[in-house]
Protein backbone atom coordinates (compact mmCIF):
# COMPACT_ATOMS: atom_id res chain seq x y z
CA UNK A 1 0.00 0.00 0.00
CA UNK A 2 2.78 2.42 0.92
CA UNK A 3 4.80 1.69 -2.21
CA UNK A 4 1.98 3.36 -4.18
CA UNK A 5 2.47 6.61 -2.28
CA UNK A 6 6.06 7.70 -2.88
CA UNK A 7 5.06 11.37 -2.71
CA UNK A 8 4.39 11.30 1.04
CA UNK A 9 8.00 12.15 1.79
CA UNK A 10 8.64 14.64 -1.00
CA UNK A 11 11.25 17.07 0.34
CA UNK A 12 9.92 20.53 1.12
CA UNK A 13 11.52 23.88 0.51
CA UNK A 14 11.51 26.50 3.25
CA UNK A 15 13.20 29.55 1.80
CA UNK A 16 16.71 28.45 0.91
CA UNK A 17 16.50 25.19 2.90
CA UNK A 18 15.47 21.80 1.62
CA UNK A 19 13.86 19.73 4.34
CA UNK A 20 14.43 16.10 3.46
CA UNK A 21 12.65 14.11 4.67
CA UNK A 22 9.84 16.48 5.68
CA UNK A 23 9.67 15.13 9.22
CA UNK A 24 10.47 17.74 11.83
CA UNK A 25 11.16 17.93 15.54
CA UNK A 26 8.63 20.12 17.41
CA UNK A 27 9.99 22.86 19.67
CA UNK A 28 9.68 21.75 23.30
CA UNK A 29 10.76 23.88 26.24
CA UNK A 30 13.11 22.03 28.57
CA UNK A 31 13.55 19.27 26.00
CA UNK A 32 14.75 20.29 22.54
CA UNK A 33 18.14 21.58 23.56
CA UNK A 34 21.37 21.03 21.62
CA UNK A 35 22.09 17.43 22.71
CA UNK A 36 18.59 16.23 21.95
CA UNK A 37 18.47 17.99 18.60
CA UNK A 38 21.84 16.47 17.66
CA UNK A 39 20.58 13.00 18.57
CA UNK A 40 17.45 13.41 16.45
CA UNK A 41 19.54 14.49 13.47
CA UNK A 42 22.13 11.73 13.99
CA UNK A 43 19.52 8.99 14.12
CA UNK A 44 18.30 9.98 10.66
CA UNK A 45 14.88 10.76 9.28
CA UNK A 46 14.59 14.17 10.91
CA UNK A 47 14.79 16.92 8.30
CA UNK A 48 14.51 19.96 10.58
CA UNK A 49 14.96 20.61 14.28
CA UNK A 50 13.78 23.52 16.38
CA UNK A 51 15.05 25.06 19.60
CA UNK A 52 13.04 25.69 22.72
CA UNK A 53 11.18 29.01 22.78
CA UNK A 54 13.04 32.22 23.57
CA UNK A 55 11.49 35.37 24.95
CA UNK A 56 12.08 38.24 22.54
CA UNK A 57 11.83 40.54 25.54
CA UNK A 58 14.55 38.70 27.48
CA UNK A 59 16.72 38.80 24.35
CA UNK A 60 16.84 42.59 24.56
CA UNK A 61 18.62 42.25 27.89
CA UNK A 62 20.89 39.45 26.78
CA UNK A 63 23.95 40.65 28.68
CA UNK A 64 22.13 40.13 31.98
CA UNK A 65 20.29 37.00 31.23
CA UNK A 66 22.41 33.95 31.93
CA UNK A 67 19.73 31.40 31.18
CA UNK A 68 18.73 32.97 27.87
CA UNK A 69 22.35 33.18 26.78
CA UNK A 70 22.93 29.57 27.86
CA UNK A 71 20.08 28.52 25.60
CA UNK A 72 21.91 29.93 22.58
CA UNK A 73 23.28 26.47 22.02
CA UNK A 74 22.76 25.63 18.36
CA UNK A 75 25.70 24.62 16.15
CA UNK A 76 26.25 24.12 12.41
CA UNK A 77 26.10 20.32 12.78
CA UNK A 78 22.37 20.61 13.52
CA UNK A 79 21.55 22.58 10.39
CA UNK A 80 18.86 23.20 9.42
CA UNK A 81 17.81 24.36 12.87
CA UNK A 82 15.00 26.83 13.50
CA UNK A 83 15.19 29.11 16.52
CA UNK A 84 11.83 29.85 18.07
CA UNK A 85 10.91 33.27 19.46
CA UNK A 86 7.84 34.49 21.28
CA UNK A 87 6.50 37.94 21.94
CA UNK A 88 3.80 40.33 20.78
CA UNK A 89 5.82 43.45 20.15
CA UNK A 90 6.82 43.51 16.46
CA UNK A 91 9.87 45.67 17.12
CA UNK A 92 11.16 43.44 19.94
CA UNK A 93 10.54 40.36 17.83
CA UNK A 94 12.44 41.89 14.91
CA UNK A 95 15.38 42.80 17.16
CA UNK A 96 15.42 39.36 18.76
CA UNK A 97 15.34 37.74 15.32
CA UNK A 98 18.39 39.75 14.28
CA UNK A 99 20.22 38.63 17.42
CA UNK A 100 19.54 34.92 16.91
CA UNK A 101 20.47 35.17 13.24
CA UNK A 102 23.72 36.84 14.25
CA UNK A 103 24.29 33.76 16.42
CA UNK A 104 23.77 31.52 13.38
CA UNK A 105 20.06 30.62 13.40
CA UNK A 106 19.21 28.98 10.07
CA UNK A 107 15.50 29.84 10.30
CA UNK A 108 13.43 31.89 12.72
CA UNK A 109 10.18 30.37 13.96
CA UNK A 110 7.49 32.49 15.60
CA UNK A 111 5.59 30.88 18.46
CA UNK A 112 1.84 31.31 18.20
CA UNK A 113 1.02 28.09 19.97
CA UNK A 114 2.11 28.38 23.56
CA UNK A 115 -0.82 28.74 25.92
CA UNK A 116 0.91 29.02 29.31
CA UNK A 117 0.13 32.29 31.14
CA UNK A 118 3.81 33.22 31.40
CA UNK A 119 3.82 33.54 27.59
CA UNK A 120 0.24 34.67 26.83
CA UNK A 121 -0.07 37.33 29.53
CA UNK A 122 2.13 39.65 27.48
CA UNK A 123 0.04 38.91 24.37
CA UNK A 124 2.56 36.45 22.90
CA UNK A 125 2.32 32.77 21.97
CA UNK A 126 -1.19 31.60 21.20
CA UNK A 127 -2.66 34.88 22.50
CA UNK A 128 -1.64 36.41 19.17
CA UNK A 129 -4.35 34.30 17.55
CA UNK A 130 -6.89 36.53 19.32
CA UNK A 131 -5.41 39.59 17.61
CA UNK A 132 -4.67 38.71 14.01
CA UNK A 133 -3.63 42.28 13.11
CA UNK A 134 -0.79 42.21 15.62
CA UNK A 135 0.01 38.60 14.72
CA UNK A 136 0.49 39.57 11.08
CA UNK A 137 2.49 42.68 12.05
CA UNK A 138 4.81 40.47 14.09
CA UNK A 139 5.40 38.17 11.12
CA UNK A 140 5.92 41.11 8.79
CA UNK A 141 8.41 42.79 11.13
CA UNK A 142 10.45 39.62 11.58
CA UNK A 143 10.43 38.83 7.86
CA UNK A 144 11.72 42.33 7.12
CA UNK A 145 14.40 42.11 9.81
CA UNK A 146 16.25 38.99 8.70
CA UNK A 147 17.50 37.26 5.56
CA UNK A 148 16.77 33.72 6.78
CA UNK A 149 13.35 32.12 6.25
CA UNK A 150 10.70 32.90 8.84
CA UNK A 151 8.15 30.25 9.81
CA UNK A 152 5.21 30.30 12.21
CA UNK A 153 3.88 27.60 14.51
CA UNK A 154 0.22 28.09 15.37
CA UNK A 155 -2.53 26.41 17.28
CA UNK A 156 -5.91 25.91 15.56
CA UNK A 157 -7.04 29.05 17.39
CA UNK A 158 -7.18 30.38 20.92
CA UNK A 159 -10.75 29.78 22.16
CA UNK A 160 -12.21 26.33 21.91
CA UNK A 161 -13.98 25.90 18.59
CA UNK A 162 -12.91 29.28 17.15
CA UNK A 163 -10.58 28.49 14.26
CA UNK A 164 -8.26 31.37 13.43
CA UNK A 165 -5.32 29.44 12.03
CA UNK A 166 -6.84 29.31 8.55
CA UNK A 167 -7.34 33.04 8.14
CA UNK A 168 -4.01 33.77 9.80
CA UNK A 169 -2.04 31.33 7.62
CA UNK A 170 -3.21 33.07 4.46
CA UNK A 171 -2.17 36.50 5.77
CA UNK A 172 1.14 35.18 7.10
CA UNK A 173 1.94 33.78 3.66
CA UNK A 174 1.14 37.16 2.08
CA UNK A 175 3.61 38.97 4.34
CA UNK A 176 6.40 36.50 3.69
CA UNK A 177 6.24 33.54 6.08
CA UNK A 178 7.93 30.57 4.42
CA UNK A 179 6.11 27.72 6.21
CA UNK A 180 3.31 27.21 8.71
CA UNK A 181 3.18 24.45 11.30
CA UNK A 182 -0.25 23.75 12.76
CA UNK A 183 -0.75 22.09 16.15
CA UNK A 184 -4.35 21.09 15.59
CA UNK A 185 -5.67 21.89 19.07
CA UNK A 186 -7.08 25.11 20.43
CA UNK A 187 -4.94 26.91 23.00
CA UNK A 188 -7.69 26.57 25.59
CA UNK A 189 -7.39 22.80 25.24
CA UNK A 190 -3.79 22.75 26.41
CA UNK A 191 -2.95 19.12 25.67
CA UNK A 192 -6.40 17.71 26.41
CA UNK A 193 -8.67 16.08 23.87
CA UNK A 194 -7.55 14.97 20.46
CA UNK A 195 -5.89 17.07 17.79
CA UNK A 196 -8.43 17.81 15.04
CA UNK A 197 -6.41 17.13 11.93
CA UNK A 198 -9.15 18.51 9.71
CA UNK A 199 -7.92 21.98 10.70
CA UNK A 200 -4.54 21.13 9.15
CA UNK A 201 -6.40 20.19 5.96
CA UNK A 202 -8.23 23.52 6.04
CA UNK A 203 -4.98 25.47 6.40
CA UNK A 204 -3.40 23.50 3.57
CA UNK A 205 -6.40 24.32 1.39
CA UNK A 206 -5.92 28.11 1.68
CA UNK A 207 -2.15 28.40 1.63
CA UNK A 208 -0.87 28.66 -1.93
CA UNK A 209 2.86 28.38 -2.16
CA UNK A 210 4.43 27.51 1.20
CA UNK A 211 4.60 24.19 3.03
CA UNK A 212 2.09 23.33 5.75
CA UNK A 213 3.45 21.07 8.48
CA UNK A 214 0.92 19.10 10.49
CA UNK A 215 1.35 18.56 14.22
CA UNK A 216 -0.50 16.86 17.03
CA UNK A 217 -0.73 13.30 18.32
CA UNK A 218 1.60 11.59 15.85
CA UNK A 219 3.14 8.74 17.82
CA UNK A 220 4.30 6.33 15.12
CA UNK A 221 4.64 5.76 11.37
CA UNK A 222 1.00 4.77 10.92
CA UNK A 223 -0.12 8.05 12.48
CA UNK A 224 2.26 10.03 10.27
CA UNK A 225 0.98 8.28 7.14
CA UNK A 226 -2.62 8.99 8.18
CA UNK A 227 -1.80 12.65 8.83
CA UNK A 228 -0.19 13.04 5.39
CA UNK A 229 -3.11 11.30 3.71
CA UNK A 230 -5.99 12.89 5.60
CA UNK A 231 -4.73 16.47 5.54
CA UNK A 232 -2.56 16.74 2.42
CA UNK A 233 0.08 18.36 4.63
CA UNK A 234 3.59 18.72 3.24
CA UNK A 235 5.42 17.73 6.40
CA UNK A 236 4.78 16.16 9.78
CA UNK A 237 6.08 17.56 13.07
CA UNK A 238 6.60 15.32 16.07
CA UNK A 239 6.87 16.40 19.68
CA UNK A 240 6.16 14.20 22.67
CA UNK A 241 6.64 10.92 20.84
CA UNK A 242 10.25 11.86 20.12
CA UNK A 243 11.15 12.29 23.80
CA UNK A 244 13.40 9.44 24.89
CA UNK A 245 12.75 8.12 21.39
CA UNK A 246 14.84 10.03 18.86
CA UNK A 247 14.58 6.99 16.55
CA UNK A 248 11.00 7.87 15.67
CA UNK A 249 11.92 9.92 12.61
CA UNK A 250 13.94 7.18 10.97
CA UNK A 251 11.26 4.65 11.88
CA UNK A 252 8.64 6.76 10.11
CA UNK A 253 10.88 7.41 7.13
CA UNK A 254 11.76 3.74 6.79
CA UNK A 255 8.18 2.55 6.99
CA UNK A 256 6.94 5.09 4.46
CA UNK A 257 9.74 4.31 2.02
CA UNK A 258 9.69 0.53 2.33
CA UNK A 259 6.26 -0.36 3.64
CA UNK A 260 7.77 -2.32 6.52
CA UNK A 261 8.41 -1.17 10.08
CA UNK A 262 11.93 -0.98 11.47
CA UNK A 263 12.56 -3.17 14.50
CA UNK A 264 12.27 -1.21 17.74
CA UNK A 265 15.62 -0.41 19.38
CA UNK A 266 16.89 -2.98 21.85
CA UNK A 267 17.19 -2.20 25.54
CA UNK A 268 20.93 -1.93 25.08
CA UNK A 269 20.56 0.56 22.22
CA UNK A 270 18.19 2.62 24.33
CA UNK A 271 20.60 2.61 27.25
CA UNK A 272 23.53 3.55 24.99
CA UNK A 273 21.60 6.45 23.49
CA UNK A 274 20.49 7.54 26.94
CA UNK A 275 24.13 7.62 28.03
CA UNK A 276 25.20 9.46 24.89
CA UNK A 277 22.47 12.03 25.60
CA UNK A 278 23.93 12.54 29.08
CA UNK A 279 27.50 12.77 27.79
CA UNK A 280 26.59 15.27 25.09
CA UNK A 281 24.72 17.38 27.62
CA UNK A 282 27.45 17.51 30.21
CA UNK A 283 30.13 18.13 27.58
CA UNK A 284 28.33 20.97 25.85
CA UNK A 285 25.90 22.66 28.24
CA UNK A 286 26.28 26.34 28.96
CA UNK A 287 23.94 26.03 31.94
CA UNK A 288 25.31 25.68 35.43
CA UNK A 289 25.99 21.95 35.99
CA UNK A 290 23.27 21.69 38.60
CA UNK A 291 20.62 23.19 36.27
CA UNK A 292 21.81 21.01 33.41
CA UNK A 293 21.51 17.88 35.57
CA UNK A 294 18.02 18.78 36.72
CA UNK A 295 16.84 19.16 33.13
CA UNK A 296 18.76 16.08 32.04
CA UNK A 297 17.19 13.80 34.64
CA UNK A 298 13.76 14.49 33.16
CA UNK A 299 15.02 13.79 29.66
CA UNK A 300 16.84 10.56 30.53
CA UNK A 301 13.87 9.07 32.38
CA UNK A 302 11.99 9.07 29.08
CA UNK A 303 14.38 6.46 27.65
CA UNK A 304 13.35 4.07 30.39
CA UNK A 305 9.62 4.00 29.71
CA UNK A 306 8.54 0.46 28.92
CA UNK A 307 11.99 -0.84 29.88
CA UNK A 308 11.30 -3.88 32.03
CA UNK A 309 12.70 -4.01 35.58
CA UNK A 310 13.95 -0.43 35.37
CA UNK A 311 12.74 0.76 38.79
CA UNK A 312 16.24 0.83 40.28
CA UNK A 313 17.75 2.51 37.23
CA UNK A 314 14.97 5.07 37.27
CA UNK A 315 15.55 5.83 40.95
CA UNK A 316 19.27 6.29 40.38
CA UNK A 317 18.74 8.54 37.36
CA UNK A 318 16.25 10.72 39.22
CA UNK A 319 18.87 11.27 41.93
CA UNK A 320 21.99 11.41 39.77
CA UNK A 321 24.53 14.10 40.59
CA UNK A 322 27.15 13.37 37.93
CA UNK A 323 27.88 11.55 34.67
CA UNK A 324 29.47 8.80 36.76
CA UNK A 325 26.15 8.27 38.58
CA UNK A 326 24.37 7.96 35.23
CA UNK A 327 26.96 5.47 33.94
CA UNK A 328 26.60 3.43 37.11
CA UNK A 329 22.81 3.44 36.84
CA UNK A 330 22.82 2.27 33.24
CA UNK A 331 25.69 -0.22 33.59
CA UNK A 332 23.42 -3.30 34.01
CA UNK A 333 21.74 -2.67 30.65
CA UNK A 334 24.63 -1.27 28.59
C1 LIG B 1 7.28 19.67 27.28
C2 LIG B 1 6.72 20.42 26.10
C3 LIG B 1 7.21 21.67 25.82
C4 LIG B 1 6.72 22.40 24.72
N1 LIG B 1 7.27 23.59 24.41
C5 LIG B 1 6.90 24.24 23.26
C6 LIG B 1 7.58 25.41 22.83
O1 LIG B 1 8.54 25.87 23.44
N2 LIG B 1 7.14 25.99 21.68
C7 LIG B 1 6.08 25.50 20.96
O2 LIG B 1 5.72 26.06 19.91
N3 LIG B 1 5.44 24.38 21.35
C8 LIG B 1 5.83 23.74 22.46
N4 LIG B 1 5.24 22.56 22.81
C9 LIG B 1 4.21 22.00 21.93
C10 LIG B 1 4.83 21.04 20.92
O3 LIG B 1 5.71 21.72 20.05
C11 LIG B 1 3.76 20.35 20.07
O4 LIG B 1 3.03 21.32 19.36
C12 LIG B 1 2.78 19.55 20.91
O5 LIG B 1 3.46 18.75 21.86
C13 LIG B 1 1.88 18.65 20.04
O6 LIG B 1 2.65 17.75 19.30
P1 LIG B 1 2.80 16.20 19.76
O7 LIG B 1 1.43 15.64 19.87
O8 LIG B 1 3.61 15.58 18.65
O9 LIG B 1 3.51 16.22 21.07
C14 LIG B 1 5.69 21.85 23.92
C15 LIG B 1 5.20 20.59 24.24
C16 LIG B 1 5.69 19.88 25.31
C17 LIG B 1 5.16 18.50 25.60
Describe this structure in words.
This protein has 334 residues and is an alpha/beta fold. The protein has two domains: 2-258, TIM Barrel, CATH 3.20.20; 267-333. The protein is 42% helix and 16% strand. β8, α8 (198-206) and β9 (212-215) form a beta-alpha-beta unit. It is globular. Flavin mononucleotide is lined by residues 26-31, 52-53, 84, 111, 113-114, 153, 183, 215-218, 238-241.
Mind sketching the topology for me?
Blueprint lengths: L11 E3 L2 E3 L3 E3 L8 H10 L5 E7 H5 L5 H6 L9 E6 L3 H13 L4 E6 L4 H4 L11 H14 L4 E8 L7 H10 L4 E8 L11 H9 L5 E4 L5 H11 L3 E4 L9 H11 L8 H18 L4 H13 L9 H8 L4 H8 L4
Parallel strand pairs: 3-10, 4-5, 5-6, 6-7, 7-8, 8-9, 9-10
Antiparallel strand pairs: 1-2
Helix pairs in contact: 1-11, 4-6, 7-8, 9-10, 11-12, 11-14, 13-14
Bound molecules: flavin mononucleotide (FMN).
The site of flavin mononucleotide (FMN) has 22 residues, from strand 4.
Amino acid sequence: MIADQPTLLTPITIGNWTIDPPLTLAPMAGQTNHPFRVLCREMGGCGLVCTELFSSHAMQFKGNHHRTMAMIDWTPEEAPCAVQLFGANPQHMAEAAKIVVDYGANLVDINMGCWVPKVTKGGGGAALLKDLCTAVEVVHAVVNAVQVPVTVKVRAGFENGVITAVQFAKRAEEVGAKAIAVHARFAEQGFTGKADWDIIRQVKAVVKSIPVIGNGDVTNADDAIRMFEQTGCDGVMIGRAALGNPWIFRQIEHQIRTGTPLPTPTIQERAQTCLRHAQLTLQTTKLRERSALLELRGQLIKYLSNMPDSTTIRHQIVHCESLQDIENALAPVL
